[in-house]
Every structure is written in structure tokens, then in C-alpha cells.
Design goal:
The protein is built from no helices and nine strands. By secondary structure, it is mostly beta strands. The chain has a five-stranded antiparallel sheet with strand order 1-6-7-8-9, with no helix packed on it. It has a four-stranded antiparallel sheet with strand order 4-3-2-5, with no helix packed on it.
């Protein structure tokens, strides 16, 4: 199965290699971050000088158009477009460091959910 991620604003491809590449920022830290492309895998790739602290809220932006990737479902979730074998879906993921919550959405309906923290968003995701 192949996963192809793009920006929901400008449609730029975000995983030309083995990771999803985004601009991440928190306080004074601003860098490129790599996220594992397989939903439910929470490995991140950061520059050696950047560290995360569980609970910190990071901002994510497209490296091409620089638009904020937060979604309207919840301010703690970001959105990308995900193409799986040709189907265009929405993927929502937590921007809170250490929180494991990912949703594959067909429109506003949850198709799949991942992560032990995904139930925190039951009230906000998949209703609408």
C-alpha cells in the first residue's frame, strides 16, 4: 500500500521520500520535521538541536505555501490530504507532543482511527 500526502490548501506533495515533511514551530524552535507516513506509527524526525516535551502544542505548516494545517474539528488537530491507492481522504493528527491520535476521514466520517489518545477527540471528530 502506498501513502501519498499533500497539503489541503495548495495540494503540494509532502512525502517525496520516506517521511512527511512539514514546518514545525514551538516557542523559539522552528524547523523541518519528518513524520512517519504510515498511520498509527508515531516516529518523528527532528534536527539534533530540537527536542519535544510531552504536552507541548506544536504548530504545523506546509513547507510550500506556509499555511497553518490546523483543522476546524479541534484546535489540537492538523489536517493533510491522504491518497491511498488513488482514493483522496483527509487525515487528522494531533499536534500535541507525545499524544497519539490519528484519524483517516472520508469527508467528516471516521474511516479509521489510530492511537491510544484518539478517544479524547470523540466529541469533536466524526460528528458533522
Amino acid at each position: 500500500m502506498s501513502w501519498e500526502y499533500s497539503c489541503p490548501k495548495c495540494e503540494a506533495m509532502l512525502n517525496p521520500g520516506c517521511a512527511i515533511v512539514l514546518v514545525a514551530s514551538h516557542n523559539k524552535d522552528r524547523c523541518l520535521i519528518g513524520l512517519h507516513p504510515q498511520p498509527g506509527k508515531y516516529e518523528i524526525y527532528l534536527p539534533p538541536s530540537v527536542h519535544t516535551v510531552d504536552g507541548d502544542h506544536w504548530a504545523f505548516a506546509c513547507p510550500m505555501c506556509h499555511e497553518d494545517l490546523r483543522t476546524d474539528e479541534d484546535e489540537n488537530l492538523c489536517e493533510l490530504t491522504l491518497r491511498i491507492d488513488g482514493d483522496a481522504l483527509r487525515i487528522l493528527f494531533s499536534r500535541v507532543a507525545g499524544e497519539h491520535a490519528t484519524f483517516i476521514m472520508h469527508g467528516r466520517v471516521i474511516r479509521e482511527r489510530y492511537g491510544e489518545d484518539s478517544s479524547r477527540y470523540d466529541e469533536f471528530v466524526g460528528h458533522g
